[in-house]
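Quick one, T. Sequence first:
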Amino acid sequence: ERQYLTGKKEFSSEGHIIIVGWNGRSKRIISDIHDSKHHQAIVLIDDTLQKHPLPRTNIHFIQGKATLDSVLKQANIKQAIRVLITADLKQNELQTDMFSILTLLAVKGLNPNVYCLVEILTQEQKENALRAGADGIVETNKFASEYMQECLWKGMAGEFEEKIEKWSLNIKQLPTHIEWTGLSFKELSVKLFDKNILLVGIISGGETIIKPPADIIIHHNDTLLILED
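Structure tokens:
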């Protein structure tokens, strides 16, 4: 029990999600997954925590740096199905992105086939993350700046601030149906709007695009980002 609470106990199950970094974003994600899918095993890796942050849940905590093979093996990286690498906002942006990319390289070195989603802060490091094997990239600064710009121009920042938390919880991923392939973003938006589904973006080629150009074409392997009523 002491090993479990201090993050020294190995995780031996399989088919789990590994989340790197303990912060407000990962905490929300863990809470949402835990609430919606109690059967989904989650392993949290963090080197700043000295004890398990959620000891009364089925979350397994590993204390250490995710750039180390020994720590990743302790999290049973070879049997994991997904890895989320979040950005450490306490460092400067370049250091943060370099650490995320080093973590990605370590993960892919031990399990080349695992799906890795990486949070990147600087545009310059996006290509390096893709070269390192990222399957998906979340550009936090780009998303935040576009959102703030929209609020600024619409003059509705106060109203949006009240709703952003609710909206962020309702953003869902939807696979592209075969009959939607070849439609433009605008055409599909209209089609989904009739079903009370608001299309807000897509994940295409490992890139997350919020409010893409209206004429961008939807491909069969794209993932849709929607707000569902």
